[in-house]
Design brief:
The complex is a heterotrimer. Chain A is mostly helical. Helix content of chain A is 78%, strand content 0%. Chain C is globular, with a radius of gyration of 21 Å.
Chain lengths: 345, 322, 344
């Protein structure tokens, strides 16, 4: 009796606080995005950046760099970051597994392998042609990993999920490498996916994936209630009137679209989808209706910051964002295993 | 390991001089500066792709060829009849030494790369097994890196030592064609004193600007009067290029851009994906010509390349850049 | 009473005999694969020609060059790397009592790669420095994992999960090093990262062979300690085992072997994972042995290398084949594991 009271009252009281938090994050994201547009290997004065942004027409090289290179890159970073964070949150919810992550679960590797097959076997070129294969690959890898991990008496435990992900990633990477080593054209195209990166992605790629990412994000945000239901366990969820099979299928489809599109655009980017939802959970508690929007805003902040760090640290060249996140995210992962909910393992 | 005895005694038997016999002894000063001596004039030769083309232009047919790419696409081997010649490798760093051993070669011909202190095919990073090719026979070649002309001359000298009659009128025709092409090239260049040229290699992540110091054909062009721009800060570890991020693509403003002729179309398409490509005025004006960036080895090929370049330069506008 | 003891004793001798016979058979299989791998190529040779050349019975310049100069180094590299991977894999798996605790996908071999690549790329290291750095790299990442995973004892699962994290971290660092490198040849970088028996340099190979000869007897002795440790620390101590020392040696030895194997052939995946359990299954009901696992690893890698070089239309790095075969095996292991195999 008293539990319902103690739970519901603070939640209601926290709604305005959490809402304010979202607004703060939105401002922070805007600030980071502005930083990302104003920094780069070419030094452009703040005044010139602002002039380019207000004119929105390209008259000089500075304007071209700002509007045609950095703005699309930043927008893509925001969309891809959001997609990875949100899909991580959804995955963790639907598998009820704190270690679920698009990178660890081999979903990015699946997308990359299918894209390479599309390039070599079917001769497809350009992102609009092979994005569908990225979706397919992401879906296949997700289902394979989840299915293998679910076999056995105790179901999809974190360890089994992680190991199945490692195995699927290794197998698919072998296939991808095997194909690529025999096909120079594919090797050139694959350089795009080897390490996750935002470099060299301009308007055509942004426009190619934006509709899918937008749609996927909206769909994911609408799933907060279902995820809350799943979090209560199968029996309770069923009692709440949830069609478990259909809900899970829908959620996996959303994840496949988000991760497939993100990978097709930027290559494999790990750990954002794993770590950010946990930070979101610390900030706003177990309610997915809050976790999802928090992940939506926190992930692009993390991704853009890592991208900026890569540009600053790698100067005069640049360090791919996938590498920065791989190095920075792994300690978070280990900490999670050691101190988080995984500690009882 | 144990069968080092297979290596033909390149230096061991040099002391013996059989004199008048036209079949030997034979010696050649390699690009590395070392003199290679054999008892007899080598007949069975395995050569690297471009070097094979050079020997074949003087009528000497190798028994085996190894290249860095498919012999079908290698520009150095274009239009050559390779019938009966064993193909030992079509990928950099990978040579089928087992097949090569079956050919029982007397000599291996490959350019000497002074920067890497190795002959072509024996550089650092190739498969450990490929290096064993050198155990089958001595390796000689002309020096790479200073001039394409001296490369052609080097193989002329090698061919002569191997018994080719380089003064044969049919063979000399190529050389004459080269002399003519060269004088026309110089004329055209002299008529456009303001013209500047930049050799670039656009890629997905960077715009590479060629450093003529490491590109023998660009050094030749400079020597013959063409103003090929020297980039001011080549990469320290890999000084063949200056690496420009695409944000800084407009750093140099030449009148004319040169792109590697081997993958001209696909490279250009790659460049055009980047919005700042158009901030190079020459690119915007479509003043882009083919750069024969593969190491030509024969007078005939070089003559052809110079003719094409002279045509392009004749049409060029020397006021695009500045 | 006497009948029982005889029964037990004869059971024991039967098991011991089975163990010796199976190990010997595995050794013969590994040697057969070793010889076979020297028969195939652009020029096919008979087993007699290979053996004759190998043992200097026949002398034929052409055959000797192909067998001794061209094929023997690669075959030796596959044999020794496979053996080292098999031995270290089975020691890890037995110590952590988990078939998934193979040093190739917890971060040990990626740690060795990082150090070796850093040595080559950043310091221009060559010769003996590369295997030395690889061993140091493997040791550092093993210590790191041990420290990070140790919490009121060492749990196999936590060790594996931490290992996966450390591995991802190390792979990120290798990616960073390679982007900073002058390795303009993407193909070459990929070759190294996937692992290939053919890239072995003579110095690294010689070091690995010497160390293997020195350490395999040690590993066989340690196997006894392992049995004692399985009974629990207190009981082991009671039996006269110096527990801490034994555990340290049981981790250090496989780590050194993995480091050297990585220096020779790059991070080849799944051989260490597969060799131990396969050998154990063949030996059953006799207990798994270090030698048997080593022979199995050698045979697996030799065959994988033959497939990589000759069966497929283009020559591929060995790691592509071990990855493509090992991944389904790991999935099968996960899918069929019972509670004590893979809990959570």
């Amino acid at each position: 009796m008293s539990t319902t009271g103690t739970v519901s009252v603070p939640v209601r009281r926290r709604a305005p606080v959490l809402g304010t938090g979202l607004a703060v994050l939105l401002v922070a994201l805007a600030a980071v995005a502005f930083l990302s547009v104003s920094l780069g290997s070419r030094s452009i004065s703040l005044a010139d950046v602002l002039r380019a942004l207000s004119d929105m027409t390209v008259t000089s090289t500075d304007g071209s760099v700002t509007l045609e290179m950095r703005v699309p890159r930043t927008l893509l970073g925001i969309l891809v970051g959001a997609a990875l964070g949100v899909s991580g949150a959804v995955l963790q919810g639907v598998t009820r597994n704190p270690l679920a992550d698009p990178g660890i679960m081999g979903i990015n590797a699946g997308a990359a392998a299918f894209v390479v097959l599309a390039i070599t076997v079917l001769g497809l070129r350009g992102i609009s042609a092979y994005i569908w294969f990225a979706f397919l690959g992401a879906a296949v890898a997700t289902l394979l990993v989840y299915a293998v991990a679910s076999l056995g008496r105790e179901g999809a435990t974190p360890v089994k999920l992680a190991l199945a992900g490692v195995a699927v990633t290794a197998g698919l990477t072998s296939v991808t490498t095997g194909i690529v080593m025999t096909d120079v054209d594919a090797l050139n195209e694959l350089r795009f996916w080897q390490v996750g990166s935002l470099a060299g992605r301009y308007a055509p790629i942004l426009f190619g994936v934006a509709p899918f990412l937008g749609l996927g994000l909206v769909a994911a945000l609408a799933c907060g209630r279902s995820l809350n239901g799943l979090a209560l366990g199968e029996d309770t969820a069923r009692a709440l009137g949830l069609n478990l099979a259909r809900t899970r299928l829908l959620l996996f489809a959303v994840v496949a679209v988000l991760c497939g599109a993100a990978t097709a655009a930027c290559g494999p980017i790990v750990f954002v989808g794993l770590v950010v939802p946990h930070i979101a959970r610390v900030l706003c508690g177990p309610d997915y209706r809050w976790i999802l929007p928090y992940s939506l805003l926190l992930s692009p902040i993390a991704l853009l910051l890592a991208d900026i760090a890569g540009r600053v640290l790698g100067s005069p060249g640049e360090l791919q964002v996938g590498v920065v996140l791989g190095v920075a995210g792994a300690p978070c992962f280990v900490a999670l295993v050691r101190y988080g909910r995984m500690a009882e393992l | 390991m144990l069968s080092a005895g297979l290596v033909l005694s390149a230096c061991g038997s040099a002391a013996e001089d059989s004199g008048s016999d036209s079949s030997g002894p034979w010696s050649f000063v390699d690009g590395s500066g070392e003199t290679v001596k054999l008892d007899e004039i080598p007949k069975r030769i395995i050569a690297h792709a471009g070097e094979a083309a050079a020997l074949m232009s003087f009528g000497i047919r190798p028994v085996g060829i190894y290249g860095d790419e498919s012999v079908k696409t290698d520009p150095n081997l274009k239009d050559l009849d390779l019938d009966g010649i064993e193909i030992l490798g079509e990928e950099w760093g990978v040579i089928d030494v087992e097949k090569a051993a079956e050919l029982d070669p007397d000599l291996i011909v490959a350019d000497w790369w002074p920067a890497e202190k190795a002959h072509g095919g024996f550089e650092e990073g190739v498969e450990e097994k490929s290096l064993k090719l050198a155990e089958l026979a001595p390796v000689v070649g002309a020096t790479q890196g200073e001039s394409i002309l001296s490369l052609a001359q080097g193989y002329e000298k090698l061919a002569e030592s191997l018994g080719a009659d380089v003064d044969d009128p049919e063979l000399a025709a190529d050389k004459n064609a080269f002399e003519e092409a060269l004088s026309r090239f110089k004329e055209v260049v002299a008529s456009k004193p303001e013209l500047t040229v930049l050799a670039v290699s656009p890629s997905d992540d960077l715009l590479y600007v060629a450093n003529p110091e490491y590109a023998p054909e660009l050094l030749d062009f400079q020597e013959w009067g063409l103003k090929v721009i020297n980039p001011d800060s080549p990469d320290k570890g890999f000084p063949y290029w200056e690496n420009l991020s695409w944000e800084n693509a407009d750093k140099y403003q030449p009148d004319l851009l040169m792109i590697d002729s081997r993958q001209f179309d696909s490279t250009l398409a790659q460049a055009e994906k980047h919005p700042t490509w158009q901030t190079i005025r020459a690119a915007k004006a479509d003043a882009i010509i083919q750069w024969p960036a593969f190491w030509l080895h024969t007078y005939g090929d070089y003559a052809q390349a110079l003719e094409i370049l002279a045509d392009d330069l004749e049409k060029a506008d020397e006021n695009i850049g500045d | 009473m006497p009948t029982v003891t005889t029964a037990v004793r004869s059971g024991k001798t039967a098991l011991a005999r089975r163990s010796v016979v199976v190990t010997a058979v595995l050794g013969v299989v590994a040697f057969a694969a070793f010889v076979l791998s020297m028969m195939v190529g652009s020029v096919w040779l008979g087993a007699g020609e290979v053996l004759g050349s190998l043992f200097r019975v026949t002398v034929d310049r052409g055959t000797d060059f192909i067998v001794l100069d061209l094929r023997l180094p690669q075959a030796t590299s596959a044999l020794t790397v496979g053996f080292a991977l098999g031995v270290s894999g089975t020691l890890f798996q037995q110590l952590l009592r988990n078939p998934l605790a193979a040093p190739d996908f917890v971060g040990v071999s990626s740690g060795a790669s990082v150090a070796a690549v850093a040595g080559i790329v950043v310091y221009g290291a060559g010769g003996l420095a590369v295997p030395a750095m690889a061993v140091v790299g493997a040791l550092v990442s093993a210590v790191l994992m041990y420290v990070l995973a140790f919490r009121d004892g060492l749990s196999g699962y936590r060790f594996i999960l931490v290992g996966i994290g450390v591995s991802a971290f190390m792979i990120g660092v290798v990616g960073y090093l390679l982007t900073r490198a002058d390795l303009h040849d993407a193909r070459q970088a990929m070759h190294w990262l996937i692992g290939s028996v053919g890239q072995a340099g003579p110095t690294e190979l010689r070091v690995l062979m010497v160390v293997l000869v020195a350490l395999v007897p040690v590993a066989m002795l340690l196997q006894r300690q392992l049995r004692a440790l399985e009974l629990g620390d207190d009981l082991a101590r009671g039996l006269g085992t110096r527990v801490e020392w034994a555990r340290f040696a049981l981790i250090a030895l496989p780590v050194v072997l993995i480091g050297l194997a990585t220096a020779v052939a790059g991070p080849i995946q799944f051989v260490a994972l597969v060799a131990g359990p396969v050998a154990a299954r063949l030996l059953r009901p006799a207990p798994g042995g270090v030698l048997a696992a080593g022979f199995t690893g050698a045979a697996v890698l030799l065959m994988a290398d033959m497939v990589a070089r000759h069966v497929l239309p283009t020559e591929l790095p060995t790691g592509v084949v071990t990855g493509a075969v090992g991944a389904p095996y790991l999935l099968w292991l996960l899918a069929t594991a019972n509670r004590e195999g893979v809990g959570g």
